[in-house]
Structure formats: structure tokens, C-alpha cells
Recover the amino acids of this structure.
């Protein structure tokens, strides 16, 4: 009897999980479907779900009208660059706060987070003027810089919580075993921190890839990443749902694939079994 | 060799004095247990010897050399942590070998030593497993293996058995003692469990409030506690303390009698009279909690079964030679 109840519960929760998953995924699915429709079918009411005239002409048009590769390359350089620099700054910062905290560590962390509470539009004008005066408008380095600053608090917070979970005893054991700071880093800490570093890296990459506010406002063409490429399809000439969808699908494809492949490694924690 | 001497060792964290000056001489090859209530500074003292904390004052000599400025790894000591602190991403073999690898020992020698250590600890079948695939007792053995493989001057144990269940703890207690005797390496062992201290130690250091209360063999501590604290801490059930008139008659501020040194008689003559409040029947022993009027509540241990129940009148006769006398400041008065 009890077994039956638990199986039924399992079935219900599985179905519920799939439903929620589908609900979250639906807009993306709809976008992908729309990208294969003709412009007319894309905003037809009632909408057709699968039985429409499948076409790839939107992709061709998009590629014809704008240079996808140029924007994709910008996205890679900007998201990758800002993530890399943010990690380089955040790792030592989170490290020292996790392993040699002071009375003010919590305050510093909160203060860092507080910078994320302000709507970015509040500082748009001063930042825009600074960028104009320094000649940083529509440059990759300018975008790398602003995205790096924007994501730094989150990166530091994430790394801090990961490092916090590494038991201090293990570091002391390594010291007793004769490991110098450098070797402790290579043989003990880095392998234990890899899952945390990897998931932070990936999250930051996704955030930087999708960041639209600063990239739209501070770049036009030269340094413009994929967000600008998408936005160019909601133009004064009118909305082109199918082409917009095709552009969006192209824009999210790389990051979607990356996330898909790395999910397994990211979920798995390494520390289990070390202590207790 | 592994002779460790502490000379006036002090440690403060800010304004808080954790260790208030410890002097100690640990002979080579002996098994010394630091015991005391939580917060007494026993773990801190161990960490000072290990070098994981810096001393505020005093000297720590290992084989005559002051090591206060020597980093932990170069003191030639190895430590077993309460949490085991195994490297989660390394196999058992990797864990045991790590210290040797750091010391730059040749590869085949590392293998030979790791396998010898694993054989001693019955770990051979598990050498290629990760710590998370082992049971608590096995993880404990790996931690010990990591300590012995380096052939240190001394082992430092920080409450290594407190995460194990009771049965396993007794078994590991025996194994650790046997291993230490077999290797003949000095060992310092921290515990809050006085039974562990009594059963494992050659010598016990009783710590309280950052001070060494007494240093001696288990039986010395049991028979001649130097003050009230040690008298109360060593022995189970606890020693009975009696103040006031009965103590004054013995020429002391407080007298102490262990439960096993109280002779229990039904309606006997002499001694202290009282009524049984609680009787615990263990089969081999009977523990009696007796309300003895002016003497207060007394605990008595009777070997065997006496068939007493709450409310029965008994008399308790202390063995005259085994009454401990203490002065106003709590120090033992020696005849």
C-alpha cells in the first residue's frame, strides 16, 4: 500500500516537474518555431503550432541583411573577456575574504551587492559622457570594462560561498603534510574548487552574453554584440516577428549549447565525503 | 626521537587568554592525553605544538630545538583531525602518499611505504577508492595512515574518535593504542572523554581554563588528585564532595570520596545514613543515589546486586584511607 502511494506520488511529481519545465521552455520553443514561419504565419491568429509552411528563408534574410558572424565574434570577445577579467579579480578577493575574514568582511560583501540594487539607467548619462570623453563608445574594451564591473559583485559572492564550503581542516592537513602555499593551491584547493569556479564562470558568461542594457546603449555597430543584432530587427519599419525570432535563435544558440554540455559537471559537488 | 617540551607556553586571541602558561615534559615514545572540559584550551595547545597557531609567549622544544618559528611541516609532526580532513578528490592511495610526495620521496619508495601503511591498517582493498566511498571507520584509518606513513617524531590526535559510534570508538581506541605501542612513536591525544584518557594514556594532562591542573599517570590522577577539579573530573561516576561539619572533623574544607569507596550496608552501624533516591541496576554494578541529610546527595557504587529500591534506608561507610581532603583553595591536603 505504502509502495503504491509513493509510486503515485512519484508519477505526480514527475509530471508536475515536466509541466513546469515545459512552461519555462515554451517561449524559447515558440521563438524557434516562429523563426521557421513566414512573416504572415508568425502573427496569424489563431496561431498554428506545427502545421505551417516550414521555411528557412528568415535565416537567409537575416544573414543577408546583417553580419551575424561579426556580432557573434563581438559577443564572444566581450562576454569572454569580461568574464575572464572578472574571475581574475574575483578569485583572490573571494579567497581572502573566505579564508582570512575580518570584522568588516560581511559589510564589504553587502556593500558590493548593494551596487547591484541601483537600476543601471540611473548612471547611464554619467557613464555615457565618461565613455564619450574617453573615446570608449562602441569599443569592445569599453563594453568588456562595463560588463566586468557590473558582474563583479555577483562573481565575488558566488566564489565566496564556494570557497567558504571548503573545510579549513583540509587546508591545515595539507600544511601539516608539507605543502607550500603554491602546492596547496595546485594539488588541494584548485581541484576542490573546480566545480565552483566552473559554474561561476558559466553563469557569468551567460549573464554577460545576455546583457542588453549597456551593450545597446554604448555600442552601435563596430563593437555591437548579438543583443544589438537582435534589437535591429525591431525597427521603425515595423516588427518582423519571424526574422526577429530567427535572429534571436541564432543569438542564443551558442550559449544554449555550452550550457547543455556543461550542466552535468556543474551540478556535481566534489566535497562530499571529505569531512565527517 | 620525539621528545617534546613546553616552557611557559602562552596563547591569547586578542584580549582573551586561552593558554595561560603551560610547562610540560613529554618523554619520547610516550602516549600523552590532553583532557578537559570543552573550552579548556586542549585543542589550542595541540595546535600550538603542531604549528597551526603561533604562540604568544614561551617556547616549544622538539628534541631540544625550539620550533616556535618553524612552519608546521618542518616540525616533523603529523596530525589526525577530528573531521579526518581527507582530500576528497584523491584516492586513498593519493591521500596517504600526499605528504611523501610533498617531501619529494622517490616514487617506488612512496608506493612501498603506502602499501605497508595500508597493510597495517587493513586498507589494502580500498587503496583506489575515494574517501566518499568509505565508511566512517575506514576514513578514520586513512587519516591515521596519512599520519604514520611520514614516520613523524610524534603523532598529534585531535579528538579523532568523536565522530564514530560507540562500538567502533572502543575498537578504534584499542587499535590506536596498539599501533602507537608497536611503532613506539610519541603521541599526543586530545579528548574530552575521560574514559578515553584513562584507557589510552601513559600520562594524562588535565587542563582547565587554559591551565594545566595536573600531569601524571592515570592511576596517579585517580588516587592522588592534586585539587578539586581533577578529583571531580577523573573517575566515573564522579567523586562525592562533602563540605561543612563532616569535612571539618577531618581537618579539611572539603572532603571527597569516590562512589566505589563507599561501603553500602543495609541499616548498618556507623558511617552516614540516608535513603535511596534512585537505584541504577547494571547487573555487574549497582549505582545508588542516596539522600544523606547533612552530607547532601551521595553516589555509591556497589559491585553486584544488592536488591535495594528507592526509599530504603542504607548506611554508607567511607574507606578511611581513601578519603581525599582539600583545603579552602581546593588544593589537596597530603598527610
Amino acid at each position: 500500500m505504502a509502495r503504491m502511494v509513493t509510486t503515485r506520488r512519484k508519477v505526480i511529481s514527475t509530471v508536475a516537474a515536466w509541466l513546469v519545465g515545459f512552461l519555462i521552455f515554451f517561449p524559447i520553443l515558440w521563438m524557434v518555431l516562429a523563426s521557421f514561419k513566414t512573416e504572415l504565419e508568425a502573427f496569424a491568429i489563431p496561431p498554428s503550432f506545427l502545421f505551417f509552411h516550414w521555411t528557412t528563408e528568415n535565416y537567409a534574410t537575416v544573414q543577408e541583411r546583417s553580419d551575424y558572424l561579426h556580432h557573434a565574434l563581438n559577443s564572444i570577445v566581450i562576454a569572454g573577456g569580461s568574464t575572464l577579467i572578472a574571475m581574475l579579480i574575483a578569485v583572490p578577493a573571494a579567497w581572502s575574504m573566505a579564508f582570512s575574514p575580518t570584522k568588516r568582511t560581511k559589510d564589504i560583501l553587502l556593500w558590493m551587492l548593494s551596487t547591484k540594487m541601483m537600476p543601471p539607467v540611473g548612471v547611464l548619462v554619467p557613464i555615457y559622457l565618461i565613455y564619450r570623453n574617453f573615446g570608449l563608445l562602441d569599443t569592445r574594451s569599453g563594453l568588456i570594462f562595463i560588463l566586468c564591473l557590473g558582474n563583479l559583485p555577483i562573481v565575488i559572492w558566488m566564489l565566496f560561498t564556494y570557497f567558504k564550503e571548503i573545510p579549513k581542516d583540509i587546508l591545515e592537513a595539507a600544511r601539516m603534510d608539507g605543502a607550500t602555499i603554491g602546492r596547496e593551491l595546485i594539488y588541494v584547493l584548485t581541484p576542490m574548487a573546480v566545480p565552483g569556479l566552473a559554474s561561476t564562470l558559466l553563469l557569468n558568461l551567460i549573464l554577460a552574453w545576455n546583457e542588453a542594457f549597456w551593450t545597446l546603449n554604448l555600442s552601435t555597430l563596430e563593437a555591437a554584440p548579438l543583443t544589438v543584432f537582435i534589437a535591429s530587427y525591431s525597427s521603425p519599419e515595423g516588427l518582423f516577428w519571424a526574422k526577429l525570432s530567427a535572429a534571436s535563435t541564432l543569438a542564443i544558440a551558442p550559449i544554449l549549447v555550452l550550457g547543455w554540455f556543461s550542466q552535468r559537471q556543474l551540478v556535481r559537488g566534489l566535497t562530499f565525503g571529505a569531512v565527517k | 626521537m620525539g621528545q617534546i617540551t613546553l616552557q611557559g607556553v602562552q596563547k591569547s586571541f586578542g584580549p582573551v587568554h586561552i593558554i595561560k602558561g603551560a610547562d610540560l615534559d613529554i618523554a619520547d615514545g610516550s602516549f600523552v592525553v590532553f583532557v578537559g572540559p570543552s573550552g579548556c584550551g586542549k585543542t589550542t595547545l595541540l595546535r600550538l605544538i603542531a604549528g597551526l597557531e603561533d604562540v604568544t609567549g614561551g617556547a616549544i622544544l622538539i628534541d631540544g630545538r625550539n620550533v616556535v618559528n618553524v612552519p608546521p611541516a618542518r616540525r616533523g609532526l603529523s596530525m589526525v583531525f577530528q573531521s579526518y580532513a581527507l582530500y576528497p578528490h584523491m584516492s586513498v592511495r593519493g591521500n596517504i602518499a600526499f605528504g611523501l610526495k610533498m617531501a619529494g620521496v622517490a616514487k617506488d619508495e612512496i608506493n612501498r611505504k603506502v602499501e605497508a601503511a595500508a597493510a597495517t591498517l587493513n586498507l589494502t582493498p580500498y587503496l583506489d577508492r575515494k574517501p566518499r566511498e568509505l565508511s566512517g571507520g575506514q576514513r578514520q584509518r586513512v587519516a591515521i595512515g596519512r599520519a604514520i606513513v611520514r614516520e613523524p617524531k610524534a603523532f598529534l590526535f585531535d579528538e579523532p574518535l568523536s565522530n564514530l559510534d560507540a562500538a567502533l570508538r572502543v575498537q578504534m581506541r584499542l587499535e590506536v593504542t596498539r599501533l602507537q605501542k608497536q611503532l613506539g612513536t610519541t603521541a599526543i591525544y586530545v579528548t574530552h572523554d575521560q574514559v578515553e584518557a584513562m584507557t589510552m594514556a601513559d600520562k594524562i594532562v588535565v587542563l582547565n581554563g587554559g591551565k594545566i591542573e595536573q600531569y601524571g599517570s592515570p592511576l596517579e590522577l585517580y588516587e592522588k588528585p592534586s585539587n578539586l577539579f581533577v578529583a571531580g573530573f577523573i573517575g566515573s561516576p564522579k567523586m562525592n564532595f562533602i563540605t561543612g561539619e563532616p569535612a571539618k572533623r577531618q581537618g579539611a574544607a572539603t572532603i571527597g570520596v569516590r562512589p566505589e569507596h563507599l561501603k553500602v550496608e543495609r541499616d548498618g552501624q556507623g558511617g552516614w545514613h540516608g535513603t535511596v533516591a534512585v537505584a541504577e541496576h547494571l547487573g555487574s554494578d549497582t549505582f545508588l543515589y542516596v539522600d544523606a541529610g547533612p552530607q547532601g546527595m551521595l553516589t555509591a557504587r556497589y559491585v553486584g546486586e544488592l536488591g535495594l529500591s528507592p526509599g530504603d534506608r542504607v548506611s554508607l561507610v567511607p574507606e578511611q584511607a581513601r578519603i581525599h581532603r582539600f583545603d579552602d583553595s581546593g588544593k589537596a591536603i597530603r598527610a
